[in-house]
């Protein structure tokens, strides 16, 4: 068990920290600032979040206690602190539940002989892992971040990690003057209780404090600041004051008026080639005392020891132990083309993005998409929430890695986000899974997406067949969760929750996997057929043969009508024969327009193509060489189409794909602005998603396995071609922190918000858990020589010779 030492509040932190510093005496005196008690200018500027293109995210590894997160297990007390890094600075930092941000960012402003320089805006950066194996593969999400002033005046190195035994975060900084004199200032922008308004603060040389309601933060430097101040952003904050090169006003408190605040701590001035090191520990708690105690415990432990515990070095239990528990990781990493670095980073990313109160609650991303222009006056989760679709992808990837515990915890969590008769506000049908929720089950979005109802069933079947859950537990979960879900996939019903009162008649779905359109979707239908087929298998095992027959009959009916409902024979492109992204009704040839979305005008359904039809082959609903599948590939791959409708973009030799033609979920081609800035306009454009490079790699593997050659050398060469094209392709989309994004720049548009290069992640969301999951699953599929998401009963019934597939 980790050992925790308590620190008396009156003991000087510097003495206990044992921090090695290399401070120089100030080179020149500066006038003392004017001190005032209460900062003016409340409530400050309208707050936003920050860049969503993270280069690092982290949290401690916590071992389950009987499948739950509780204190007292192998890893001691449970830490509930997460952090992120973007542009070389600490960004959104959560404490409590995984979506509850408490910090917007922590960075340094540096006064130089030639002007003020601010980390992020005026620096370049690189992100490295602190703890790796002898092959350079990361073993924990602890980071070294180096920012360098673009004019070469200074460099700052930060080491960032959390304390696995306390509710605290550690930033160990070394600041080097490269030329001329510099005076650094630490800038902390809290966003307590997940908003940028309502915060109160107090600044002392020995500590900086912020709070809102019953959430408190205490930042402790290992040596007192030279000066300390708190102010309202845009009015009396330290950064605004430093515009003239000096901190002229110091404020001790925000008083009785809360708002959008910034805390500032001044550090000693350095001359040329001088450096200093400072450690900063940020504690969180329900009171100021609790937050201070959390920071004090971390300091008392010793920061080198805290890092060793975080890593799990020696006999300590930490991230090394989790990585070592992934029995399939080493062999699937052999399928990579980067020596396994991204595979190991992906394993960390998938586990980090799990809540530490609700075991198994897997979120989509530790980011707020396009956060630097997203309003922070109201609490929101961004992507730090549960979508059963993303959830399924992550749980399946963790299974692929050999994680024996997290996917089971995830499966057991799922009833919390299923609609029941007692779901708050529900007056309608039950059994379907909520579109989006907080990790505690609080309802956020309520559209009915049938793939999100099928995938929990699919996950349960996979876990059962893998021996992770037994027949007895399966029978319990069948009655509690699987049967209600399967019944809904057969019967549908009228939703009755919040705004949603639509009648759902499967396999027609209110929203397909991109949450924007209603109708018949190839990807959604593939999941529904698969979910019902494996539900029938589960029902038979659970002693319910009548339901088993009903589920299978519905799946057979849906499968027999796939082409009739969704495959056009009179389309706009090529020979006119291909799968649509979506058909609004049962006639795929009527050219009915799809709905307007994301500022894009309605277009006839036969002009909108996506890769959703590949999911039919992935699960086994159609053979990889089914005529409807192969006929659709040329239209999906057509790169001569006009930019609005074009889907495929080969970026730096890597096949990349947009979600679909006419996608508007992305940056604006007319203005270069972030998504949604200035309202929904036709200039918005969804970019390339690395997920689809992995999906295409899975399809190519399925196609190869359907018709292997007798020449084993040829087979090996084809497998290697898939590796070099699709595995290497996904690896090329990772950033310097080995994080995979939701979207990468496709090169369309004259302006780029951040001078993106083609193939570089945008400000949409990084890391996207689904992208990391798709990469891991592709490695596992290549290692197994079998598609990981293939379902044997589905393939046998619909895609094998003699099966029911009529085409």
Q: Overall 3D geometry?
A: globular
State the secondary-structure class.
Answer: alpha+beta
Strand content: 15-25%
> What is the oligomer described by this structure?
single chain
Q: Please mark out the parts with pLDDT under 50 across 5 or more consecutive residues, or reply none.
A: 1-28
C-alpha termini separation:
60 Å
Tally of contiguous helical segments: 20
Question: Rg from C-alpha positions?
Answer: 27 Å
Question: Can you count the beta strands?
Answer: 27
Mean pLDDT: 95
Helix content: 25-40%
How would a crystallographer describe the biggest sheet? Answer: 8 strands, antiparallel
What does this structure look like?
- The protein is of the alpha+beta class and 807 residues long.
- Helices cover 29% and strands 19% of the residues.
- It is built from 20 helices and 27 strands.
- The strands form 7 sheets. Strands 2, 3, 4, 5, 6, 11, 15 and 17 form an 8-stranded antiparallel beta sheet that branches. An 8-stranded antiparallel beta sheet has the order 7-8-9-10-18-14-13-12. A 3-stranded antiparallel beta sheet has the order 25-26-27.
- A hairpin with a 2-residue loop joins β13 and β14 (215-221).
- The chain is globular, with a radius of gyration of 27 Å.
- The protein starts with 12 loop residues before the first helix and ends in an 8-residue tail after the last helix.
- Mean pLDDT is 95; it is low at 1-28.
């Amino acid at each position: 068990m980790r050992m925790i030492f308590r620190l008396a509040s009156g003991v000087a932190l510097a003495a206990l920290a044992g921090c090695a510093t290399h401070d120089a005496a100030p080179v020149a005196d500066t006038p003392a600032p004017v001190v005032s008690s209460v900062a003016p200018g409340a409530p400050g500027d309208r707050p936003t979040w920050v860049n969503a293109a993270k280069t690092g995210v982290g949290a401690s590894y916590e071992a389950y206690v009987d499948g739950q997160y509780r204190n007292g297990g192998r890893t001691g007390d449970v830490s509930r602190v997460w952090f992120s890094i973007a542009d070389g600075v600490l960004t959104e930092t959560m404490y409590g539940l995984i979506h509850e941000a408490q910090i917007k960012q922590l960075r340094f402003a540096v006064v130089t002989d030639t002007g003020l320089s601010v980390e992020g805006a005026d620096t370049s950066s690189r992100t490295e892992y602190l703890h790796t194996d002898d092959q350079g593969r990361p073993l924990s999400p602890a980071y070294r971040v180096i920012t360098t002033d673009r004019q070469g005046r200074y460099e700052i190195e930060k080491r960032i990690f959390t304390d696995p035994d306390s509710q605290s975060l550690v930033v160990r900084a070394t600041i080097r003057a490269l030329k001329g004199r510099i005076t650094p200032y630490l800038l902390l922008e809290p966003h307590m209780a997940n908003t940028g308004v309502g915060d109160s603060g107090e600044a002392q040389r020995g500590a900086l404090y912020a709070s809102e309601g019953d959430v408190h933060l205490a930042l402790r430097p290992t040596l007192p600041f030279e000066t300390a101040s708190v102010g309202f952003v845009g009015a009396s904050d330290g950064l605004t004051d430093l515009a003239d090169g000096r901190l002229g006003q110091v404020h001790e408190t925000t008083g009785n008026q809360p708002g959008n605040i910034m805390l500032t701590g001044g550090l000693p001035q350095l001359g040329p080639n001088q450096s200093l090191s400072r450690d900063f520990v940020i504690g969180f708690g329900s009171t100021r005392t609790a937050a201070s105690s959390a920071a004090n415990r971390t300091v008392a432990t010793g920061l080198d020891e805290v890092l060793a515990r975080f890593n799990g070095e020696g006999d300590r239990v930490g991230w090394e132990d989790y990585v070592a528990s992934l029995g399939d990781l080493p062999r699937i990493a052999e399928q990579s083309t980067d020596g396994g670095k991204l595979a190991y980073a992906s394993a960390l990313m998938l586990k980090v993005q799990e809540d530490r109160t609700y075991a198994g609650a897997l979120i989509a991303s530790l980011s707020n998409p396009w956060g630097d222009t997203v309003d922070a006056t109201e609490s929101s989760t961004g992507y730090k929430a549960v979508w059963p679709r993303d959830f399924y992808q992550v749980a399946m990837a963790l299974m692929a890695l050999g994680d024996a515990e997290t996917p089971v915890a995830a499966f057991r969590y799922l009833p919390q986000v299923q609609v029941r008769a007692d779901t708050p506000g529900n007056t309608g049908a039950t059994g379907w899974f909520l579109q989006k929720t907080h990790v505690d089950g609080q309802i956020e979005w309520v559209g009915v997406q049938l793939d999100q109802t099928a995938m929990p069933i699919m996950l349960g079947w996979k876990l059962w067949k893998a021996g992770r859950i037994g027949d007895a537990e399966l029978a319990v979960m069948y009655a509690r969760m699987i049967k209600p879900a399967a019944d809904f996939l057969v019967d549908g019903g009228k939703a009755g929750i919040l705004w949603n009162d639509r009648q759902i008649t499967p396999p027609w779905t209110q929203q397909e996997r991109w949450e924007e359109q209603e109708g018949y979707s190839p990807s959604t239908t593939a999941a529904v057929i698969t979910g019902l087929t494996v539900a029938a298998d589960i029902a038979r095992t659970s002693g319910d043969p009548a339901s088993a027959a009903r589920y299978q009959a519905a799946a057979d009916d849906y499968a027999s009508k796939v082409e009739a409902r969704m495959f056009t024979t009179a389309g706009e492109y090529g020979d006119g024969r291909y799968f649509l992204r979506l058909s609004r009704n049962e006639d795929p040839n009527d050219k009915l327009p799809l709905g307007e979305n994301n500022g894009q005008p309605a277009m006839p359904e036969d002009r909108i193509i996506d890769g959703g039809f590949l999911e039919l082959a992935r699960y086994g609903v159609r053979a990889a060489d089914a005529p409807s599948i192969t006929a659709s590939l040329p239209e999906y791959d057509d790169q001569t189409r006009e930019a609005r409708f074009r889907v495929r973009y080969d970026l730096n030799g890597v096949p990349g794909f947009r979600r679909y033609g006419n996608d508007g979920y992305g940056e604006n081609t007319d203005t270069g602005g972030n998504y949604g800035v200035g309202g929904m306009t036709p200039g918005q454009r969804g970019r390339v998603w690395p997920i689809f490079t992995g999906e295409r790699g899975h399809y190519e593997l399925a196609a190869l396995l359907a018709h292997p050659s007798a020449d084993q050398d040829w087979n090996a060469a084809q497998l290697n071609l898939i590796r070099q094209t699709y595995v290497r392709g996904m690896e090329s989309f990772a950033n310097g922190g080995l994080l995979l994004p939701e979207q990468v720049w496709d090169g369309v548009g004259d302006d780029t918000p951040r001078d993106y290069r083609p193939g570089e992640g945008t400000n949409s969301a990084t890391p996207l858990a689904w992208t990391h999951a798709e990469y891991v699953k592709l490695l596992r599929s290549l290692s197994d020589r079998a598609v990981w998401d293939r379902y044997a009963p589905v393939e046998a019934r619909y895609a094998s010779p003699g099966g029911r597939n009529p085409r």
